Amino acid sequence: MCEICRHSPCHSQCPNYEPRAFYICDICGDPIVAEDEFVEIDDKYYHIDCLNDNYTPSEILEMLGISTRIAMEDD
After folding, report:
1. pTM above 0.85, yes or no
2. DSSP state of 8
3. 12 CB burial (10 A radius; 0-12, 13-18, 19+)
4. pLDDT digits (tens, 9 = 90+) for 7-49
5. Which residues are bridge partners to 41 per DSSP?
6. Are 39 and 59 in contact (CB under 8 A)?
């Protein structure tokens, strides 16, 4: 039992409360908890912010199996 909130597990407003981790982010290693925005790519989980901070949009598309192209005059 928590010495602060007197609950087991802790009440959600207790400073000792640790939200349930649904997944672990493959970039930062932190848990993905309720209300976190995340994506699953090839059985790996990423916080959206981690993905945006570490990969370019082209790299993200490549991870999703989407090819990018460059338009050429002779297309």
Report:
1. no
2. S
3. exposed
4. 888 888 899 888 889 999 999 999 999 899 999 999 999 999 9
5. 44
6. no
